[in-house]
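Please fill in the sequence for the structure shown.

STRUCTURE ENCODING:
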């Protein structure tokens, strides 16, 4: 008989595998499959941050693992304790291949975290012009102010990138 917490431990193992960049995709996929067979729920989350395995994989940068989790039922709009979705995470880290996959699977381009920030705010703040371009191509709101009254442009200017993925001259940081 398996211990009572075997499902919880299986989920913890799956989460750790998804955030371990040193593991190969095939090894991580095998861990995911084994954990789901034990009864782990692909949408369970960490107790403190409320991050899911999809958050972890989106940060780690493996498109294959993100695809596997989505095929197993991971929710693209499952937000963590700060209202951050996997698209926020991928945008913050500049993982454009994962961003495209999440958007194709229904992620909301202008989803807001608890500070009213969007993935576009994150991509600009962390200086990922390719991620900005993906989001703008999907209709992200470039005028949206977050809870600090900052637009994505202001974050781009603070990072010193006056174009931040847009065509030259799209935004101007000064007159």
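FILLED IN BY: designer on duty
SEQUENCE:
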């Amino acid at each position: 008989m398996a211990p009572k917490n075997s499902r919880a431990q299986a989920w913890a193992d799956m989460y750790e595998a998804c955030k371990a960049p040193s593991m190969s995709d095939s090894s991580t996929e095998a861990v995911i499959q084994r954990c789901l067979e034990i009864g782990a729920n692909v949408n369970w989350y960490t107790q403190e941050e409320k991050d899911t395995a999809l958050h972890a994989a989106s940060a780690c940068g493996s498109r294959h693992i993100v695809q596997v989790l989505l095929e197993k039922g991971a929710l693209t709009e499952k937000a963590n304790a700060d209202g951050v979705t996997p698209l926020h995470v991928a945008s913050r880290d500049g993982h454009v291949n994962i961003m495209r996959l999440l958007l194709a699977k229904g992620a909301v381009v202008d989803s807001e975290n608890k500070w009213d920030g969007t993935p576009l705010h994150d991509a600009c703040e962390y200086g990922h012009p390719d991620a900005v371009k993906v989001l703008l191509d999907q209709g992200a709101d470039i005028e949206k102010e977050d809870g600090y009254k900052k637009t994505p442009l202001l974050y781009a200017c603070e990072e010193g990138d006056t174009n931040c993925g847009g065509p030259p001259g799209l935004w101007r940081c000064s007159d």
